[in-house]
Amino acid sequence: MSLIKRVVSALTALLALIGAAVQADPQAAPALAPHAMVAAANPLAAAAGLKVLKAGGSAMDAAVAVQMVLALVEPQSSSVAGGAFMVYMDGKTHKLTAYDGREVAPAGATPALFLKDDGTPLGFGAAIVSGHSAGVPGAIAMLYLAHKEHGKQPWSSLFADAEKLADDGFTVSPRLAGMIASPYPPQNRQPDTIAYFTKPGGAKMTAGDLLVNHPYAATLRKLATEGPRAILTGAIAADIVKRLHEEPLPSTMTLADLSAYKPHAGPALCRPYRAYIVCSDQAPSGGLAVLEALGLLEHTDIASRGPTDAQAWLEIALAEQLMYADRDTYEGDPAFVSVPVDGLLDPAYLAQRAKLIGETAFAKPPAPGQPAGAPKVGLDATAEPGGTSHFVIVDAAGNVVSMTTTVESIFGDGRMVDGFFLNNQLTDFSFSPKTADGLPIANAVAPGKRPRSSMAPIIVLDKQGDFVAAVGSPGGNAIPSYVLKTLVAVLDWHMSMQDASALPNLIARGGSIQSEPKRYAPGVVDALAAKGLKVSAGFAAEGSGIHGVIKRAGGYEGGADPRREGVAVGY
User: Fold this and answer.
1) In what helix (H) or strand (E) does residue 273 lie, and over which residues does it extend?
2) What is the DSSP letter of 488?
3) 19 pLDDT exceeds 80?
4) What pLDDT was estimated at residue 303?
5) For residue range 406-419, what is the model confidence (pLDDT) as tens digits?
6) Among residues 442, 460, 477, which one has the least CA distance to residue 400?
7) Considering only Cβ atoms within 10 Å of each terminal Cβ, which end of the chain, N or C, has fewer?
8) Does the pLDDT value for residue 480 go beyond 70?
9) Nearest-CA neighbor of 467 among 403, 395, 546, 561?
10) CA–CA separation, 218 and 215 (whole Å)
11) Dist CA 536 CA 513 (whole Å)
12) Is the pTM of this model over 0.85?
């Protein structure tokens, strides 16, 4: 059995146990918050964000506080040396802005970055912990830009909670403890990971232990006073470069690569869906994929069905397979390749493609379509494992942040500097620059290029431009599936965000159908099998972490995925 399959198998069992423990004591759906709300993957992070909001801070102020705490308390998912995508809504003007803090490949990267000397791809486990895997980090630079435009409180005032938790220590959560205990991820065999999570007596950290991180507190103090320059220039940047230049497979990243990083900001990518407008980030984010899948489902009868109806789940699965076939073929960094965004979202293309969605499963995985403007490129089968977090914040003025943040895989590349893990984001690129028959791959490595991402932060408006809901999820390649299911449940089936997040996850990509059979209503799994769709338990289905907020009459309703440890809190 390959390393990645052993990792998947072990983490499937591990996360199932963690999920079962969470479900054994389910949280009630949160009450309406009349003024503001934070939904995030850890109670300590949510509390830090809510504290900022109660003090009169904006949603963007709270986002900074939440990110800094997440990077400490769930290092398996987040880091100040990671990347992020964000959609922001101005509560007064209702203008939406998409922010892109995706990592980029260093100037010395080549299309052969993940190829061995004989031209064959590196093993995934070896690639993750290599120096080659790390991209130039962008999350903090993106947050700094967005805060400069939409923050109310001083940037330097938003780090206190995270700094205190780092200096005084925080309690290791069951989920983090489970990640530490797993023997399979290659990151857990790296010296930095072992040192960080080992107690003085030599035992590994377990749930309930106090974890202190003085170096991270020092990094936060520098970030508070210097902004992103603290990690993109100077001593911390030098530490990053030095660590990445160590074996195995040293990086080519330089101080010039770090200092040159610039986040992107621009219009959100929006399309109508029934009575709504659904908005996300531009390519190379996963927002395009979610919008395509919604466009396909709009041509079905799924809105008249519901979560106990097998045909509804079949329609979701078929739409996903069509969506992934297109995304895995055509999407890459639009600064480097031609991404047929308008063609993929063209109503006529969607209507024609949706005709493939019927009463039975596909006999074989569908081929990509031929949207207008499509280049001649090949299918990319990048693995993109989970190691990500999502949070939603709405403040008292109606400003909204929907942000997905990531260190890529569990504990990134397993290398730490100054109290935080470095990312392995470049493993989101295709390891091979061409297909076996010689077609170029849109998501191939190139210097300065952003790898394709599945992260899909969403904000939903009504046709008048008023806020309806915001949602997003971690989960690697499965993110578009998690988000799609939740949007259908909330918008079409009128479910609460909490109930929507708890519905079964169904990931249909190519010929792989992964799901959570025990979460379906009685009879649904057998009915799907009768339609030719056999769902089996899989790692991807255990990796969701949906968080969202819906605006209701009288306030905001939040939801936090019961598979994780998140909460939705407000006032």
Assistant:
1) strand 269-273
2) I
3) no
4) 98
5) 999 999 999 999 99
6) 460
7) N
8) yes
9) 395
10) 5
11) 7
12) yes
Average pLDDT over residues 142-154: 98
Q: What are the tens digits of pLDDT across the range 330-362?
A: 999 999 999 999 999 999 999 999 999 999 999
229 contact partners, CB below 8 Å, separation of at least 6: none
- Note the pLDDT tens digit of each residue in 165-203: 999 999 999 999 999 998 888 999 999 999 999 999 999
Which residue pairs from 176-179 have beta carbons closer than 8 angstroms and sit at least 24 positions apart in sequence?
A: 176/73, 176/74, 176/75, 176/76, 176/205, 176/207, 177/205, 177/206, 177/207, 177/209, 178/14, 178/15, 178/17, 178/18, 179/14, 179/76, 179/410, 179/411
Say if CB 153 and CB 58 are below 8 A apart: yes
Q: Is 160 left (phi over 0), alpha (psi -120 to 50) or beta?
A: alpha
Q: Do the Cβ atoms of 442 and 375 come closer than 8 Å?
A: yes
Residue 388 designated active-site = yes
The residue to which tokens 């308390």 are assigned: 73
Distance (Å, whole) CA 142 – CA 288:
20
Residues 6 or more apart from 159 whose CB is under 8 A from it? 64, 65, 68, 220, 221, 223, 224
Provide the 8-state DSSP code for 519: G
pLDDT digits (tens, 9 = 90+) for 496-509: 999 999 999 999 99
* Cβ-contact 528, 467 below 8 angstroms: no
Provide the token pair at 127. Answer: 């690639």
The 3-state DSSP class for residue 507 equals strand
388, 406, 427, 486: the active-site residue: 388
**What is the rounded average pLDDT for all residues in the chain?**
93
Reading the block at residue 524, the tokens are 């649904």
Residue recorded with tokens 């395509």: 292
Query: CA–CA separation, 160 vs 450, rounded Å?
Result: 32
Query: What are 557's two structure tokens?
Result: 């309703």
Structure-block tokens of residue 208: 């309930």
Omega prior to 447 cis, within 30 of 0: no
Pairing state between β 400-406 and 264-267 = unpaired
The percent helix, strand, coil of the chain (3-state, each to 5) is 40, 20, 45
Q: Tell me how far apart the alpha carbons of residues 15 and 25 are, in angstroms, rounded to a whole number.
A: 16
Q: Pinpoint the alpha helices (H) of 183-232.
A: 191-196, 214-226, 229-232
Q: What is the pLDDT of residues 86-110, one digit of tens each?
A: 999 999 999 999 999 999 999 999 9
Task: Assign 3-class secondary structure to 111-168.
Answer: CCCCECCCCCECCHHHHHCCHHHCCECCHHHHHHHHHHHHCCCCHHHHCHHHHHHHHH
The contacts found for 353-358 with CB under 8 angstroms, 24 or more apart, are 353/296, 353/322, 354/295, 354/296, 354/297, 354/298, 354/299, 354/300, 354/319, 355/299, 356/318, 356/322, 357/296, 357/299, 357/300, 357/315, 357/318, 357/319, 357/322, 358/318
Name which of 289-293, 467-471, 536-540, 552-556 the model is least confident about: 536-540
SS3 446: coil
- In our burial notation (b when 16+ CB lie closer than 10 A, e otherwise), range 29-54 reads bbebbeebbbbbbbbbbbbbbbebbe
